[in-house]
Amino acid sequence: MRRTVRKEIGCAMKLEVLVSAVEKNAAALISQMHIATDAVLVNQCDRYEYETVAVQGGSVKCFSMPERGVGLSRNTALLHASGDVVLFSDEDIRLSRDYAEKISRAYASLPDADLILFNVEVAPSRRTYWNREIRRITYRNYGRYPAYSISGRLDALRRVNVQYSLLFGGGAKYSNGEDSLFLRDCLKAGLRIYAHTACIGREQERESTWFSGYHEKFFRDRGVLYHYLYGRLALPLSLRFLLTHRETMCREIPVGKAFRMMRAGVREARGR
After folding, report:
1. pLDDT tens across 2-45, in order?
2. How confident is the prediction for the chain on average, in pLDDT?
3. CATH code at position 27
């Protein structure tokens, strides 16, 4: 069956940035991130509050809430989104001045795309990917993309009812992996995902709100995640992960010990 060509190819596409933040001043953060389109900002702090902030290219709906967890934050932003295309982002991302134009051009050039993953500059020690060509994302290459690279057509995301896990990610029981699980669920739902070469911003280096180091909990949680992502391949892919990142992740905990921690996480997820 032929897919319907979306309306935004022939007219203006409404882009909305969905920002997850912790204990931030909304107006100051919007300025720092260079947001110049509609946006939804979810600020996890010590109170309930709502306000709107006008920006040159639209307005930002700002929700403050005391509940914690990055998955909850992103799902809350999705719930209140109204754009044609949404871009997930974080408080430490500084968007390029032409991010909206780049994203609009990408979707116009890929009319069958449900999601597009963009480049964002980060410190070399934190880089997990860099798109050098436009290509389809499949089960073989989806696991390296952070949430702030992900954009998607809101109608497609709502049609298949895909959301972020509340068990994984900062502030949740397991400390990372909500972005990979989100992309896996999108693939399982049949959504078409593309990687794109456009760079839409950079990460501002700072102390992480959630990350506390490469310790036992990090590796054990990663093992739990790998079980849900890869099933029977969890253990060999755990070893590959550690060998690939041993220079940065295994300085204090040797590869062998880190692997045993990941294996314990895999077994926990399997109920053993």
Report:
1. 344 454 444 589 999 999 999 999 999 999 999 999 999 999 99
2. 92
3. 3.90.550.10
Residue 206 phi, psi dihedral angles, 5° rounding: -165, 170
Residues 221 and 196 reside in one and the same domain = no
Identify each DSSP E strand in 49-192 by its residue range: 49-55, 58-65, 85-90, 93-95, 115-121, 135-136, 150-153
The span from the CA of 190 to the CA of 104, in Å, is 23
Do the Cβ atoms of 112 and 67 come closer than 8 Å? no
Shared-domain flag, residues 68 and 138? yes
What string of DSSP letters covers 93-117? EEE-TTHHHHHHHHHHH-TT-SEEE
Same structural domain, 49 and 174: yes
247 with 136, same domain?
Answer: no
Which pLDDT score is estimated for 185? Answer: 97
pLDDT of 49-72, one tens digit each?
A: 999 999 988 999 999 999 999 999
3-state helix, strand, coil in the chain (%, to 5): 40, 25, 40
The pLDDT score that the predictor gives to residue 127 is 86
pLDDT for res 10: 42
CA distances 118 to 74, 85, 106, 111, 151, Å, are 18, 13, 9, 16, 8
* Tokens, residue 268: 């926990």
